[in-house]
Each structure stands twice: as structure tokens, then as C-alpha cells.
Amino acid sequence: MIAIRIACAGALMLAVAGCNSSPPPAASAPPPVASTNVTPSNFRLPGGEGCHGEVANWQAIQDNDLRMGHVGQAVYNQIKGEIGQAAAACSAGRDAEARSMVRASKVRHGYPG
To answer: pLDDT (tens digit, 9 = 90+) per residue, 16-42?
Structure first.
């Protein structure tokens, strides 16, 4: 019986001692790393009217996303082909079709349409 009391008292002392110990030091955050996946502050969309502006803007966005590493080369090439088709429709005077092609390309690749 005394052995049990001594064992319980020892366990209680260890538990209480654990409560009084200081917490481990908090890990400090790593220093900020210069990132290449941020749009440069001087980036501007080319703008423009009608389908010409939409095609030019979509191309500029893709060029920027490729440069930042947000889109892989294979996907970029696919989108560039889609942009080329929209540009051809636009040049042929099919404004609504070209704009629709740009929107479809955006949605297909996860961009807001």
C-alpha cells in the first residue's frame, strides 16, 4: 500500500513538474524570399477596342503568367494557338466570334470569363 502511495506521489510530482516547465521556443519565420511569381509593378494590359483589345489583353496575361511560372509551356502553347485563332477571326471582321473564342479559352483554362 505504501509502495502504491509512493508511486502515485511520484507520478503526481512528475505531472506537476511538467506543468511548470517552459514551452519550447517558437520557431521564427523564415526570411522573405524574392519571388519571381509576382506580376511586375510596371505590367500594363495593352487595352484597345473590341476584339483586338481582348485578344491583345489575353495574350499579355498569358505572356506574364508564363514568365511568372503560373502556366506551363505546353499549356501556354495551347492557349497561344487559341489566341491565334481568335486573332484571325478578329482580323476577318468577326468581332463577336473572336470575343467568344477568347472567353471560351479563359474559361477552359480556369480564368474568369
So the answer is: 555 555 555 555 555 554 456 778 888
Q: Where are the domains of the chain?
A: 50-108
Angstrom distance (rounded) from CA 39 to CA 64: 7
Pair 106, 75: CB distance under 8 Å: no
pTM: 0.66
Name which of 110, 100, 22, 94 is nearest 61 in CA terms.
Answer: 110
Biggest CA pair distance of the chain: 100
Q: What is the 3-state secondary structure (H, E, C) of the chain?
A: CHHHHHHHHHHHHHHHHHHHCCCCCCCCCCCCCCCCCCCCCCCCCCCCCHHHHHHHHHHHHHHHHHHHCCCCHHHHHHHHHHHHHHHHHHHCCCHHHHHHHHHHHHHHCCCCC
